[in-house]
Design goal:
- The protein is flat.
- The protein has three domains: 4-230, Aldehyde oxidase/xanthine dehydrogenase, molybdopterin binding domain (Aldehyde Oxidoreductase, domain 4); 237-307 and 362-437, Aldehyde oxidase/xanthine dehydrogenase, molybdopterin binding domain (Aldehyde Oxidoreductase, domain 4, 2-Layer Sandwich), CATH 3.30.365.10; 324-354 and 449-706, Aldehyde oxidase/xanthine dehydrogenase, molybdopterin binding domain (Aldehyde Oxidoreductase, domain 4, 2-Layer Sandwich), CATH 3.30.365.10.
- The chain has 19 helices and 29 strands.
- With 711 residues, it is α/β, with parallel strands linked by helices.
- The protein has a seven-stranded mixed sheet, with helices on both faces.
Length: 711
């Protein structure tokens, strides 16, 4: 029976699918099952595979009934290895999963390794998206570790003829008495225990270590592998090298919507390297990336394309309205109650397309050997990419081997399989391994974008400043956080699909940024009409609870009431709050207007995601989200005309620099009375509307479009 976390995961995955393109020694990388076992070394590991109706092995979906042998390996040197399909893209999941296992097993952090996203061996915990590692995978790992702890205690108790509750565990040592003890290294050589690991599951309801007794969770454990990262030892997808490896390049269309008509390959054998033309795919591979680039320059003029007119960015939002697939409201007409409103707004907000701009562009290495395909690539969805490779090359699941090294950033932008498929196509034609690394221009142009959006808000308040009607429509960007958290007499919110002229897909917090920007801007507009302080207006329309708590905490730290009373020419303050994926955030901002441009001076943000599992990592998530949100709020926008991008490099697409980061006051509320939820997305959503509201107060003019054109 599926648990609640699985249901949440499937709901999130289905939402992600709506946005994505609908088309076809701690760092360990493996090529074979033998190498996998050699890497682990001697010890206990029972690998159990599941088969579908055709006898093909699939990625194993982790459930509470999984055998412990699918999750753990006990090493003869006293180490313990945890297996998971989750990936590390800089968010700290490797460290968090290490902490989770160490906490339940009472094993020091440094004695635990985590192998991630080897799809031959790791149980399938789902993709790394939607802030699901904390509320979904960590509880699974803890439950399995607790089951393993109790199994080992029973094993020790039997060895020394004591009761299992007499066995004490500390530092990875299971002690029946001062002179009777066993460690991980002892268990690793016990074949009787191997059989039990294959039979015992985490289905038994074994109490987890209570929050009040945490020793490792709840503490600031340093980033696992952090030294390797800062010293350049860590290997990313771009760093993978194989013997006899070639380097690939792919011919790209000159514009969106362009269709390849023909390729003149007469005399192409004189260009050198390997040239591939298969349908609409044209690529090449050579001994060096420079050599592949030289061949590419010769291939591009030989391609003839059929281009069709495309929408440009200056007409994007009107295009959304023209192509909107409007769904009839199921909640009735709000016009009657809206007529009774004392104050009313009819506002339109827009958000531009933005790129994820990860530090590492897409990269993959592919190798074919006796009909077996092995691919190393960076992705947040290993199971999905594995399935795409099987589908495209018509291979059974056990003929495709996917490895996901720690990856240089994702932010929701690395869910699809295109670079892996391209590398595999080139490698198949070349008969040698091929490394394909997208350039920054390719990443900007052909990777999918955060969806642009148009949001229309009609809302009204009564004589007491209470919300009585709220009508909210999002065109194109999505439905995340679309429902208002404010108490209101009658509400309706809808997401409307539109024709999207660019590739669009998942992004950090999905559409929560757009919907929160529109809602919190609208709340300030209503507060102004009601002649009410924006904080007081929100508190009046919020029920007691976690959102109200973070809003109060943020405004107290920011000294909102004192600053609100100051009259400072050219300066303004603003606030915003929001909730998504079970966590809550509130931000206050101060801006200064200099020569007609707004500069952000300070941001104070309070975030709450239940019990904090790693304070230093949570602070990094809070700060990283806020700065990323600052970029989308103030600078970032993809501009395009007739299918061609005008902002296809960092020289034309501004992301925040160190000089752009204002004074930051960040605080994380530790709610140890509440379950831990994800923290990698929600902190991004409040900064843009807080800044927009501050600009409106400083200038008296409301900006309703992101980016806000900050200085």
């Amino acid at each position: 029976m599926k648990d609640l976390f699985d249901d949440f995961q499937e709901q999130h995955d289905s939402e992600v699918e709506r946005y994505e393109l609908r088309e076809s020694p701690r760092y360990r990388f493996f090529a074979t099952r033998r190498q996998f076992a050699q890497t682990l070394g001697a010890g206990l590991l029972i690998l159990v595979s599941e088969s579908d109706a055709r006898g093909q092995r699939r990625g194993r979906r982790a459930r509470r009934e999984e055998p412990l042998s699918q999750r753990f390996h006990l090493g003869v040197e006293g180490s313990l290895t945890v297996l998971t399909s989750k990936v590390e893209v800089g968010q700290g999941s490797r460290t968090q999963i290490t902490q989770a296992a160490a906490e339940e097993l009472r094993v020091p952090v440094e004695r635990i390794d985590v192998i991630m996203a080897d799809m031959d061996q790791c149980p399938d915990d789902g993709g790394t998206a939607g802030s699901r590692t904390t509320p979904s995978t960590v509880p699974r790992v803890r439950a399995a570790a607790a089951a393993l702890r109790e199994l080992l205690k029973r094993h020790v108790a039997k060895q020394f003829a004591v009761r299992s509750d007499e066995v004490e565990v500390e530092g990875g040592v299971f002690r029946a008495s001062p002179t009777q003890a066993m460690g991980i290294e002892d268990f690793a050589t016990d074949q009787r225990l191997a059989e039990q690991l294959e039979e015992v599951t985490a289905a038994e309801e074994i109490p987890l270590v209570p929050v009040g007794d945490w020793r490792i969770l709840g503490t600031s454990v340093a980033r696992v592998g952090g030294r390797d990262i800062v010293t350049g030892v860590a290997k990313y997808p771009s760093d993978i090298q194989l013997p006899r490896m070639l380097y690939g390049k792919v011919v790209r269309p000159p514009a969106y919507g362009a269709i390849l008509q023909s390729v003149d390959l007469n005399g192409a054998d004189q260009l050198g390297g390997v040239i591939v033309h298969d349908g609409d795919f044209v690529g090449c591979a050579a001994e060096t990336s420079w050599g592949a680039g030289q061949i590419l320059e010769q291939l591009e003029p030989r391609c003839r394309w059929d281009r069709s007119p495309q929408v440009s960015s200056n007409e994007l939002f009107d295009h959304f309205k023209r192509t909107a697939q409007v769904r009839p409201s199921q909640r009735g007409d709000l016009s009657e109650v809206m007529q009774s409103a004392v104050h009313r707004i009819d506002s339109r907000y827009t958000v531009a397309y933005v790129q994820h701009a990860p530090m590492e562009p897409r990269a993959a290495v592919a190798n074919w050997n006796d009909g077996q395909l092995t691919v190393w690539t960076g992705t947040q969805q290993p199971s999905r990419v594995h399935g795409e490779l099987c589908r495209v090359f018509r291979l059974p699941a056990d003929s495709v081997h996917l490895r996901v090294p720690d990856t240089g950033g994702g932010f929701g932008g690395k869910h699809t399989a295109e670079v892996a498929i391209e590398a595999a196509r080139l490698a198949k034609a070349a008969g040698r391994p091929v490394s394909l690394r997208w350039t920054r221009r390719e990443e900007f142009t052909w990777a999918y974008f955060r969806p642009a959006g148009l949001i229309e808000v009609t809302a009204g308040v009564d004589t007491n400043g209470a919300l009585i009607a709220w009508d909210f429509t999002n065109y194109n960007s999505g439905g995340s956080a679309i429902e208002t958290p404010y108490r209101c007499g009658q509400t309706q919110a809808r997401f409307v699909d539109c024709d999207a002229p660019l590739r669009q897909g998942s992004y950090r917090a999905l559409a929560s940024t757009a919907n929160t920007f529109a809602r919190e801007s609208a709340m300030d507009e209503l507060a102004l009409l009601a002649k009410t302080d924006p904080l007081e207006f929100r508190l009046r329309n919020l029920d007691d609870g976690r959102l109200k708590d973070v809003l109060r905490a943020a405004t107290e730290r920011f000294a909102w009431q004192q600053r609100r009373g100051r009259k400072m020419r050219g300066r303004g303050i603003g606030l915003a709050c929001g909730t998504e994926k079970g966590s809550f955030v509130a931000a206050c901002a101060e801006v200064e207007i200099v020569d007609g441009e707004a500069k952000v001076l300070e941001v104070c943000q309070v975030f709450e995601c239940g019990a904090i599992q790693n304070p230093v990592n949570l602070r990094a998530q809070n700060a990283g989200c806020l700065v990323m949100g600052l970029g989308a709020a103030g600078y970032e926008a993809i501009e395009f005309a007739n299918g061609e991008l005008k902002t296809a490099s960092f020289s034309g697409y501004r992301v925040p620099r160190m000089r752009d980061v204002p004074k930051l006051d960040l605080f994380e509320l530790d709610r140890r009375d509440l379950p831990s939820v994800g923290a990698g997305e929600t902190p991004i959503i409040a900064v843009a509307p807080a800044i927009a509201n501050a600009i409106a107060r400083a200038t008296g003019t409301r900006q309703r479009s992101m980016p806000l054109d900050l200085a």
